[in-house]
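New to this. Please check this fold:
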Amino acid sequence: MQIAIGALLAWPTFGLHVEFDPELFLVLFIPPLLFADGWKTPTREFLEHGREIFGLALALVVVTVVGIGFLIYWVVPGIPLVPAFALAAVLSPTDAVALSGIVGEGRIPKKIMGILQGEALMNDASGLVSLKFAVAVAMGTMIFTVGGATVEFMKVAIGGILAGFVVSWLYGRSLRFLSRWGGDEPATQIVLLFLLPFASYLIAEHIGVSGILAAVAAGMTITRSGVMRRAPLAMRLRANSTWSMLEFVFNGMVFLLLGLQLPGILETSLMAAEIDPNVEIWMLFTDIILIYAALMLVRFGWLWTMKKFSNRFLKRKPMEFGSWTTREILIASFAGVRGAITLAGVLSIPLLLPDGNVFPARYELVFLAAGVILFSLFVGVVMLPVLLQHIEVADHSQQLKEERIARAATAEVAIVAIQKMEERLAADTEENIDNQLLTEVSSRVIGNLRRRADGRNDVESSILEENLERRFRLAALRSERAELYHLRATREISNETLQKLLHDLDLLEALLIEENQ
């Protein structure tokens, strides 16, 4: 939808033109989006599926660059071999954000989506590094060798991950310093958190390693380092809501910008094709379909090969692919849509070579990349809903079981903590709390916790009880809010008091609504 709106706004009828700077685009939009994806990625599942993810994000990228690169060189007139490799490299990254946008959150089975998200996190870096190599060879600033490229890639990848880890660690130290000396001011802490992906990306790029992997590593480190767990409550609450809003806005702007570029790309490419004797306009559209079909065949063939390899040689510890059906392999194949990274990468190809000549077939590279992006999204919109029909997306009974186990375990720990606190307060002569009041309050709290820890209740009755209690609490909160507005209207309380009490009610209501989702 955003792509269509952007294209409509940039069409000559409206004439909205936004200058697209690929480097600025990569700096402003990609780091926070990848940081957010890394933050949300379950580290344990990511490591468990490490073989599958790196099989797609690294090995498949190499196969795609080599195979599709030679295909483009042989089939598309006027594109030399090295620029063909550059186009294949920029077409290799997949886009999990675009995928979620066309099928919706939670529509693809979890076992497939987890691998696809991990692949999208990693193959952005491998694809852009491959593009960097191809452009450097075309510009004459690098002599390509397999050994040299491998060493350079390892340096860029490992260095990027280490840079993200170090910057995230420094952020954690600075957060503790601010909390100690400046108080728990959430606004400052959230601003620092927002700057973290940009700092990771820019520092990594400055020292010559992968800024994309640095942003991903920083996001994943935040979840494992305990920084957010030790952060003040106000900061955690605001950080989650702020990042959700920013992620939504940035995702929309990425595809809006993509749409804004399409009319200009189409006009420039068609004008260049008219004066190029080696190219016919209708062949450009045919080449888009051919390249996309080849990408899907390579992806499907690689997934099928990994399935057979796992079942044949990894019987003791097979990969997840070993249990996939043909339908699931097709879902994973068509889910490999292309998006913003591909567009930013192809537009980053320089206009001129060092000797002043035009970069070979650049307009064809841009046109074909933009066409493959749109065609992959179109095919995904058409094919994925068909393939996903009648597929069980999530095992809700398993999730309910896990929730019940977790609630019971946390309730038992909470009861022990309350009992210890009761004993400490009873022995504390300075606080001088009445023992009867102390026993009454602790018994009431422990009684509520006991109901959560009681495993004898069946799932249905527990859910019914929780939902009923939540409805009563929400009704009470909403009536309290109405009364606060009445008290402010009658000038019994000030506006400052109203805002403070409304904020407290909003937090409680948000918690109750979040539990119900």
